[in-house]
Amino acid sequence: MKSTFKKLLPFAVVGILSGATTVGVQQYLVHDSNNGDQSYFTKSNNASFVGMNTATVGDDFVKASKMTVPAVVTIKNYQNRASSRASEQDLFDFFFGDPLGGKGQQRQKQQQAPENMPSGLGSGVIISPDGYIISNNHVVAGANKLEVVLSNKKSYIATLVGTDPNTDISLLKIEEKRFALFKLCQF
């Protein structure tokens, strides 16, 4: 029994000292902060609550969305799927062989998605009346073809003007004039 007590005694002493130190430091910090400058905690009798008319907020949101929705577009990213799926299948065959006994190529052709199906979707915003669109780089990355669909369901093929992977920004262009655009600010 004494040997157990001797083994636990150092842990008990360390625990008590740690607890006392923590309480002392906490009391010191609370006491010190109460003696500081409290001019920024003064009470103001001029404060009042501002009422918010929910009908006005709703109307403002409707106005803002009516102005911006025509400038928002859907971007469809078409990629060559056959090459990526073929490399995945080749890697599987390398390690495990063809489990179908030579019919793997036939299975691969059956599993390929149609070429007219997009690989990815994203959104963008028309920023100029001559058809420049800003979007994210990850939306257009690896695309063979980019299709832009406007809010009125008209569809255009876009050309990729430039990308910046570091900031995840891309710039597209569609060949049409007089687009609704999103005004970022008014000069």
From TrEMBL:
GO terms for cellular component: cell envelope; periplasmic space. The keyword Hydrolase applies. Keywords: Hydrolase, Protease. SUPFAM superfamilies: Trypsin-like serine proteases. Coiled coil: none annotated. Its EC number is 3.4.21.107. It is an enzyme of class 3 (hydrolase). InterPro entries: Peptidase_S1_PA, Peptidase_S1_PA_chymotrypsin, Peptidase_S1C. GO terms for biological process: proteolysis. Pfam families: Trypsin_2. The keyword Hydrolase applies. Transmembrane segments: none annotated. GO terms for molecular function: serine-type endopeptidase activity. This is Probable periplasmic serine endoprotease DegP-like. It comes from Chryseobacterium indoltheticum. The lineage of its organism: Bacteria, Pseudomonadati, Bacteroidota, Flavobacteriia, Flavobacteriales. The gene is mucD.
